[in-house]
Write a structure and sequence with these properties.
The complex is a heterodimer. By secondary structure, chain A is mainly α. Chain A is 56% helix and 3% strand. The relative contact order of chain A is 0.14. In chain B, the strands form 2 sheets. Chain B has a two-stranded antiparallel sheet with strand order 1-2. In chain B, a hairpin with a 2-residue loop joins β3 and β4. The interface between A and B is large, with 56 and 55 residues.
């Protein structure tokens, strides 16, 4: 049944969006229909109607941002059933996770999906950051009023939120792994001079990891942090649009030779990279050249679908194959040996170990240097880098250009060191944080009976 | 009509999307299938067949299917063991293979499973419904099923089914003897005979030379030192080896080697591990003693000694290890030598006079006199005086004995 349109001729062509449509065609017959789909549909309204073709290349962005977003979506979706099943109390938490693991229908799978998505999201977000750095995508290109540096800052903030989300989720099963990872993590925070113990007390809601910590981490994990990340994600995407899409668009638009003749005015819904008044006679013409842009519907939507569903499939398969660990119930009196921080903080734990120096009976604790100064320095430097990077604007959106070789090499070297330390922390540190080569066996862990 | 700009990607993107879709469907089917796979389905089907065979199809129809559980709020346990072990309260499956065997009914009469669950006694992981996890044979589960198989592993021999007596003792720890818990009873007897309380606090009573054993079972396996233990590394194995030769595991231990038999050592190890605070609501403990007092006989004997000629040795605490037979003091443990002849003994044992020895003791006594019975110089002099008195009494008795041996013999007969 069609609702009567008041004051209008029902058959007259109407502006898109006036009649929102719930779905869109995967095979639009015309550019008009393709563009209408973007304007008329809420789910697609944040896409441009036309996308610069090279921006869709697999080997430019590797779609890492989309993968991160897909994982975030998967985390929210898999987290919802867990909200109904998990009990955030020190008496019941462990038991409720056991129930999820053993008797809830699909419970083990939902938990595994949630856990693996969380780990993969840390990986994807970090790789996304690496990609953005190496392509100089935080740089403003040819568009006017671009503020890509602020989107980079947003991105750094979102990385921190992702790490903190993962860290808060780590505690919730209330097993030994959780308890001691959080002990190690929050002890590092307490090495901040003067206010360290207060910072730790604020984090864990007391002086010991107890019910107050659990409920604090729980509320942060299920409401505050996902909410904040969701808002920042929306802002991040909005800024991408306002900055004219991927930096690749800027790079490509100055690469191509402009057409000789003046452009004819055409009807477009948006002009990537030139929306904000780049001289239309020169650069807009390259955008408008045939074959430079494609319709977002279906080319962008199809690729987004491939990446999103591909991520879902990968996570689902991994979740079926990898068992989620659940160690002994948390016990403040028994330190598992070794007590390890979550893997993405292991490089810090490794640095703390290395910078802890014993001279005779005197110990210089590395927690302040390795746990506070160094990561603080890295995050500050990373945040400020768009303003420190003085390379020309034309390098935005290009992989490893010669003019940015030094900074890219330094960045890669730091990334490599972090990667090595993470690897050492994960696989080569055994009981008492002793170093073991892969071919050396660890001492056996004793049992009760 | 306007034409659509040609898409540069359709050729490859569409098949990729199709493949991804197929993979996603496959992954979904795979996890849905693996979620439905459980051992218990097969065990339940088998049990239904057995019931049909033995008791007829009508009874077989009453066999429940799906996950079964016993929820014991007082113990905060949800035991799903009966999902596979369906026969425990059925008659007629006494000789069937596990998991279809009837549970011995005598113990169930006093410990009904709906009140006590299963894992409180048997160990294992009640939450789990698959065999390995439920029997606790997985990483990170510290309460394995206390099965005869595990008992075999530890070389318990004839007592291989006894391991679960450890859990009996969670509630029955203050009983001197618990029917059916033979290994625990044996261990309690050894504790009494060897006088462990001379050095250790047990249930709030005892000496302070050794560690308090009241909650020793709570000690985590990681907290033991396994450096000198060969073979399996577990708290249980550690205790067995330690009871057989304390100094082999802890070099500077002052604990004497009691030359216990293997069975005694195993029984004691079980008793050690059973001594841990159990969170138990009061109704589970109805009818069992809640503390471990001395028996009236023990109390009377001690009172007599306290007021007799050897009162000094009782009050000072020497009698915990030493008898002083000449003054009528009898040690319950008799770990050390009789003090009646201490004046002579120090010469032969340590090569010094009793005065020198009491002032500068060696060996066990140096530990005792510095940690448990702390005496200053004046008090030590008093102690030496008492030792001399005891020796004098001893010599008198000896002289009297040799003089009136027949008379004493007549005494005994009468």
């Amino acid at each position: 049944m069609k609702l009567p349109l008041i004051g209008r001729d029902a058959d007259a062509p109407s502006a898109p969006g006036v009649r929102p449509v719930p779905f869109w065609s995967f095979r639009p017959r015309s550019d008009r229909e393709s563009g209408d789909a973007i304007v008329a549909n809420f789910a697609l309204h944040w896409f441009p109607s036309k996308v610069f073709k090279p921006s869709l290349d697999w080997n430019y962005s590797f779609w890492l941002g989309t993968i991160s977003a897909a994982l975030f979506l998967l985390l929210i979706v898999s987290g919802l059933p867990l909200l109904f099943l998990y009990v955030p109390s020190v008496e019941r938490a462990y038991q409720s996770v056991k129930d999820i693991e053993y008797v809830v229908t699909f419970g083990w799978w939902i938990r595994a999906v949630h856990r693996i998505s969380a780990h993969l999201m840390v990986v994807a977000v970090v790789l996304h950051l690496v990609r953005v750095f190496l392509t100089g995508a935080y740089k403003n290109g040819v568009g006017q009023n671009q503020k890509r540096e602020w989107n980079w800052v947003l991105g750094v903030l979102m990385l921190m939120l992702t790490l903190f989300l993962s860290f808060t989720g780590y505690l919730l099963p209330w097993d030994q792994l959780a308890f001691w990872a959080v002990t190690v993590g929050t002890n590092i925070a307490s090495s901040v001079p003067f206010v360290g113990p207060e910072v730790r007390e604020l984090m864990i809601g007391g002086r010991a990891i107890e019910q107050a910590t659990l409920i604090r981490f729980y509320v942060l994990h299920v409401i505050m942090l996902p909410g904040a990340l969701g808002v920042l994600f929306a802002y991040h995407m909005w800024r991408v649009r306002k900055d004219g899409g991927l930096a690749r668009a800027d790079a490509a638009s100055v690469l191509d030779r402009p057409r000789e003749e003046a452009p004819t005015p055409t009807k477009t819904y948006t002009l990537l990279g030139v929306a904000r008044g780049t001289a239309p006679t020169v650069r807009a013409s390259t955008i408008e050249a045939p074959g430079t842009t494609v319709n977002a519907v279906p080319d962008l939507t199809r690729r987004v679908l491939i990446v999103t569903l591909g991520t879902f499939a990968l996570v689902s398969i991994l979740a079926s194959a990898i068992q989620s660990p659940l160690e002994e119930p948390a016990n403040a009196l028994v330190t598992p040996n070794p007590a390890k921080a979550p893997w993405y903080f292991l490089w810090l734990q490794e640095i703390v170990t290395i910078t802890t120096v014993r001279i005779g009976g005197f110990t210089i604790n590395g927690a302040f240097l390795g746990g506070v100064v160094l990561p603080g320095l890295i995050v500050t430097l990373m945040t400020l880098w768009p303003w420190l990077d003085r390379s020309p604007a034309t390098l935005a959106g290009r992989w490893l250009p010669a003019d940015r070789r030094t900074q890219n090499l330094v960045f890669l070297a730091i990334a490599l060191v972090i990667l090595c330390f993470t690897f050492i922390g994960m696989y080569l540190r055994g009981p008492s944080w002793q170093f073991y080569w892969p071919w050396e066996t660890w001492p056996t862990i004793p049992s009760r009976i | 009509m306007e034409q659509r700009t040609n898409s540069p990607y359709p050729k490859l993107d569409r098949p990729i999307l199709a493949i991804i879709g197929a993979v996603l469907v496959g992954a979904t089917v795979f996890f849905a299938y693996s979620d439905r796979q459980h051992d218990y389905k097969w065990y339940q089907a088998q049990f239904r067949e057995q019931v049909a065979e033995k008791l007829g199809a009508e009874r077989a129809a009453t066999v429940p299917s799906g996950i079964e559980q016993v929820w014991v709020p007082g113990l905060r346990r949800a035991d799903r063991c009966t999902t596979c072990h369906q026969a425990i309260t059925w008659k007629g499956f006494e000789t069937a293979d596990q998991p279809w065997r009837t549970h011995p009914p005598e113990i169930l009469a006093t410990h009904p499973p709906e009140r006590f669950g299963c894992t409180a006694c048997h160990g294992g992981q009640g939450w789990a419904i698959d065999t390995d996890a439920a029997h606790g044979e997985i990483a990170h589960w510290e309460e394995p099923l206390l099965s005869s198989w595990l008992g075999d592993e530890y070389g318990l021999g004839d007592h291989k089914r006894a391991l679960l007596q450890m859990n009996c003792n969670s509630c029955h720890r203050y009983e001197r003897e618990t029917p059916g818990a033979d290994m625990i009873n044996l261990a309690k007897k050894v504790v009494d005979e060897k006088g462990c309380r001379a050095c250790h606090v047990i249930n709030g009573r005892g000496g302070t030379i050794g560690p308090d054993l009241t909650a020793v079972g709570e000690k985590a396996p990681e907290q033991y030192e396994y450096g000198r233990l060969s073979g399996q590394q577990s708290a249980f194995a550690w205790h067995v080896a330690h009871f057989k030769d304390p100094r082999a595991l802890v070099q500077d231990s002052v604990m004497p080697n009691f030359h216990l038999s293997t069975t005694e050592a195993q029984a004691l190890a079980m008793l050690m591990l059973s001594w841990r605070p159990a969170e138990m609501s009061a109704d589970f403990l109805a009818g069992v003693p809640r503390s471990d007092p001395q028996t009236p006989e023990e109390r009377r004997a001690e009172l007599e000694m306290r007021t007799g000629p050897g009162a000094y040795f009782v009050q000072t605490g020497c009698f915990v290890c030493h008898s002083v037979s000449s003054l009528g003091v009898k040690s319950p443990a008799q770990i050390g030598p009789d003090l009646s002849t201490a004046v002579e003994d120090t010469q032969s044992r340590f090569g010094m006079t009793v005065d020198d020895f009491m002032m500068n003791p060696t060996g066990t006594m140096s530990v005792v006199l510095s940690r448990q019975i702390v005496l200053d110089t004046e008090q030590r002099k008093v102690a030496i005086e008492h030792l001399r008195e005891a020796f004098a009494a001893h010599q008198q008795q000896k002289a009297a004995n040799t003089a009136s041996a027949p008379a004493q013999g007549a005494d005994r007969v009468r």
